[in-house]
Structures are given as structure tokens and as C-alpha cells.
Amino acid sequence: MMTSRFSDYRWFPWAIASAMASGGGVNSALTYFAISSAPRLVTQHPFNEGNGYNAILETAKRADALGWSAKLGFVRGTDASGELTVSFADRTGQPLRGLSVSAHIDRPVGAAPEIVVLLAESAPGRYSAAADLGQRGQWEVRLVARQG
């Protein structure tokens, strides 16, 4: 009886080695993309700003107690410019008139400078202004509205 010199499982170590090599290749590619695309440091004092989060929560609590509601819209014109509109209503749904409104616009990633836009009342409870964001993409808008 003649026996084979090679086992039927002689390919098994090569399969393990190729699986590990492909995993290493994927990890290397993901590491490269993560390092090359990271926005780096967005703020100079992240620890201090993180500690101030309780003040942000307190401000939100005071704003909720007013019962005001806002509806934000942006009608894009050419490129990254357009018209920013905000409608304010009180607890009963009546428009809020005579507010001084400013919009503080930031990018969630990157170190783009904050854009501040002052909005004027164009209709009862409706405030609008032209805004040039400089570039297209995702933006965060923080509204500051004061009455009296």
C-alpha cells in the first residue's frame, strides 16, 4: 500500500498566514486613513471647555422654562451662501416679536472660524439674514434670542 507524502491539510498553515496578512493590510489601510483625515485639535482648551458643560445644561434648562420654540431653515443660493431664516413662537404658538437674534455657526469638525450672523425681523416672529458659509458641508447653528 502506498501512502502520500503530503497530508490533505498541508494548505492549512498557508490559509492562516494569508488571513492574518489580509487583516494586517486592512488595519494598516484604516490606520493610514484615520491619521491622514483627522481634523486634529479643534479647540485649544478641551479640558476647560468640557468642565463647562454643566453651565451649558443650566442654560438649556432656563431656555426650556421659557417655552419658546424655534424653527430654523436655510435656503441655499449659490455655492455655500444662502438665506438663514428662523421662526420663533411662544408657549401658546403665537409669534414672538421684537427679538434680537444672532446665529453662531460652527463646523462640527475642523478648525473653521465661527460665523456670527445677525438676523432681522422680516415678518411677525420670522427673522432672516443672508449668510455666506464659505464652504459646503455640515454646520451647527446656535441661536441666541433676547427679548427686552
Brief account:
The chain has 148 residues and is an alpha+beta fold. Helices cover 31% and strands 32% of the residues.
Beta strands, count? 6
Q: Give the DSSP E fraction (strand runs of 2 or more residues).
A: 25-35%
Runs in which pLDDT lies below 50 for 5 or more consecutive residues are none
* Mean pLDDT figure: 86
Order of helices and strands: HHHEEEEEE
Kindly provide the radius of gyration, computed on alpha-carbon positions and rounded to a whole number of angstroms. 28 Å
Let me know the largest β-sheet: 6 strands, antiparallel
What is the structural class? alpha+beta
Count up the helices. Answer: 3
Overall form: elongated
Question: Please, could you describe this protein's structure?
Answer:
It is a single chain. This protein is of the alpha+beta class. It has helices at residues 12-37, 46-51, 53-66; strands at residues 69-76, 81-89, 100-106, 115-123, 126-132, 140-146. It has a 6-stranded antiparallel beta sheet with strand order 1-2-5-4-3-6, with no helix packed on it. The longest helix is centred in the first third of the chain and has 26 residues, at 12-37. The protein starts with 11 loop residues before the first helix and ends with a strand. The relative contact order is 0.14. The mean pLDDT is 86.
